[in-house]
Amino acid sequence: MEEKIYFTSGEFAKLCGTTKETLRHYHNKGILSPKKEGDNGYFYYEAWQFFEFDLISLLIYAGNSLQEIRQYLDSYNTENFLELMKGSKERLLRKREKIESMLRVVDNSVALVNLGLKHDGHQLTIAACEEEYYLTVPIEESAYENKRNLLDAFSRFWAHSVDNPLIGEYPYSYVIPEESHRKGDYSIKYIAGKLDEPSGNRNIHTKSAGRYAILFHYGSIDEVHVSCRRLCEEIHQLKLEHAGPLYVDELISNHVTPEEEDHITKLSIRVGE
């Protein structure tokens, strides 16, 4: 008869590259229990349990819960293994999609901050812009009279954004419709978030490609209407025609620094001769 080889909890933990606390946790959860308890009160694991630990580690890395692993180990076979791997792959693909989405947000958000830092935007500039897409949620006029209502608008925006993982930037953007700024009303009417590509959501707004007049606002977003007015006035002074919504994109905001004097917002509106 082949002699069984036993390891103490400490020896077995070292063999598996883990800790005694992890082994104790697995023991309590009923997924990997010692094979015997010595007269000295020490627990002992058999050598072959190394492979059982290896399997548990694989299943955990694949995104399975300890409860799912325990259920699988209670009656595991080839069919159950394949089914478990199928579910694991589906979870990992969803996780990968979220990670890739967050990486886009991180990269784009860093690019926005760098854009704000390197541009001296006190002068109006004209630049060609490609087509862009925004997820938008309206802000009711009365919301500005009640902070609770205003926060409710932001809450609704993020509720919509959950269904649109293509949102590629963290800071907020805003939209002032043409019918508003034509009347001299520069208050923000929509909360917006830029998308990496079009979406079938009915709240999607397309920013047309073309030449845009651009001005940077420095300071609190609450005072952005002053810079919006200045942008439109300078466009008229240059004898240019502007059309379409006025776009307000935060570059450096409360997400970056609490100091409002360091906040930078990019304003843009389409122009023609």
In which range does the helix fraction lie?
Answer: 40-55%
Q: Based on CA inertia axes, which overall geometry fits?
A: elongated
Distance between the termini: 95 Å
Low-confidence stretches: none
Give the rounded overall mean pLDDT.
85
Structural class by secondary-structure content:
alpha+beta
How many β strands by DSSP?
11
Helix-strand pattern:
EHHEEHHHEEHEHEEEHEE
Strand content bin: 15-25%
Please state the CA-atom Rg, rounded to the nearest Å.
29 Å
Q: Numbering strands along the chain, what is their spatial order in the largest sheet?
A: 4-9-11-10-6-7-5-8
Q: DSSP helix count?
A: 8
Largest sheet report? 8 strands, antiparallel
Description:
Strand 2 (36-37) and strand 3 (43-46) form a beta hairpin. The chain contains eight helices and eleven strands. The mean pLDDT is 85. It has an eight-stranded antiparallel β-sheet with strand order 4-9-11-10-6-7-5-8. The longest helix has 41 residues, at 78-118. It is of the alpha+beta class and 273 residues long. Helices cover 42% and strands 24% of the residues.
